Amino acid sequence: MAQKKRPQRGGDYQGKPKRGTEGRTKGAQGRGARFTAQQRMPQASRTQQTAAPQRRDVHAAEGNYIEGRRAAFEALRTGFPIKRALIAQGVENEPAIRDLLGGLGEAGVSVKSVPRTQLDAISSHGAHQGIVLEVGKFPYADLSDIIAAAPAGSPALVVVLDHVTDAGNFGAIVRSAEVVGAAGVVIPNKRSAEVTVATYKTSAGAVMHLPIAQVPNIARALEDLKSAGFWVGGATEHAEDVCWDAPFEGRVALVMGSEGDGISRLVLDTCDFTTKLPQRGETESLNVAQAATALCFEWMRRNRDSLA
């Protein structure tokens, strides 16, 4: 189906000319604003800092584990390669665990019963629910894989995260992107949240269904997406127009900025348009994961006839 013609306006959401058929002009000048105010906790005293150091979990940081029953079920259902399963002692007779043990047995995965404290040490949030799967390093996709997953001429969504650092936000965004049928998620390979035990959990296993690409340069990745026919939109609370008026029809690369600084200047300059969520209340704004979810569903709503 041919793409709908983009709405013609005198300028983009920051007042600059829109990208025409003979080339793209840089749009959306100005610093990208965050969707959520950066929260600063009161600084602890020097005594408190030295007296209560936080535990640093090396295994969780390496992303070698999947924790939680739902994520474990998803790993088995999708055929994700599992090295072994660790089960907390005393949970073997629980119905959900029995079902998991049956699936693990059929998949030929070795199972080891361990003290719950061992799972606590691996877990990112202490919410392992009695099971942890050792899976090795996450197999990231290439950007070309994501582009290939979006057939030319068809509506497609790619969510691009400009240095989102919180694992909970990252996992929630991946989950929302997968639910609306996005082609993939793109993240930087440095100074960004990665797929770890925490994101397996917070995405409810969605990281196993959706291609996730790590790239060295977000702005360059956006140019590659433009070459593949994507219209690049940046989410910033400083945008002039709300998402109801954004050109979300067809192939869209939705850029979400970091929790503290929003979209970087270079990445914002690469965007074709900017957009924001409508707001009537007094709270400053939603956080990046909530905002991404709302915008993903707005893209899905706009393209519902073509996606049906």
From TrEMBL:
<keyword id="KW-0808">Transferase</keyword>
<feature type="compositionally biased region" description="Polar residues">
    <location>
        <begin position="36"/>
        <end position="52"/>
    </location>
</feature>
<dbReference type="InterPro" id="IPR029028">
    <property type="entry name" value="Alpha/beta_knot_MTases"/>
</dbReference>
<comment type="similarity">
    <text>Belongs to the class IV-like SAM-binding methyltransferase superfamily. RNA methyltransferase TrmH family.</text>
</comment>
<protein>
    <submittedName>
        <fullName>RNA methyltransferase, TrmH family, group 3</fullName>
    </submittedName>
</protein>
<dbReference type="InterPro" id="IPR013123">
    <property type="entry name" value="SpoU_subst-bd"/>
</dbReference>
<dbReference type="InterPro" id="IPR001537">
    <property type="entry name" value="SpoU_MeTrfase"/>
</dbReference>
<dbReference type="GO" id="GO:0005829">
    <property type="term" value="C:cytosol"/>
</dbReference>
<dbReference type="Pfam" id="PF08032">
    <property type="entry name" value="SpoU_sub_bind"/>
</dbReference>
<dbReference type="Pfam" id="PF00588">
    <property type="entry name" value="SpoU_methylase"/>
</dbReference>
<dbReference type="GO" id="GO:0003723">
    <property type="term" value="F:RNA binding"/>
</dbReference>
<dbReference type="InterPro" id="IPR029026">
    <property type="entry name" value="tRNA_m1G_MTases_N"/>
</dbReference>
<dbReference type="GO" id="GO:0032259">
    <property type="term" value="P:methylation"/>
</dbReference>
<dbReference type="InterPro" id="IPR004441">
    <property type="entry name" value="rRNA_MeTrfase_TrmH"/>
</dbReference>
<dbReference type="GO" id="GO:0008173">
    <property type="term" value="F:RNA methyltransferase activity"/>
</dbReference>
<feature type="region of interest" description="Disordered">
    <location>
        <begin position="1"/>
        <end position="57"/>
    </location>
</feature>
<dbReference type="InterPro" id="IPR029064">
    <property type="entry name" value="Ribosomal_eL30-like_sf"/>
</dbReference>
<keyword id="KW-0489">Methyltransferase</keyword>
<dbReference type="GO" id="GO:0006396">
    <property type="term" value="P:RNA processing"/>
</dbReference>
<feature type="domain" description="RNA 2-O ribose methyltransferase substrate binding">
    <location>
        <begin position="65"/>
        <end position="141"/>
    </location>
</feature>
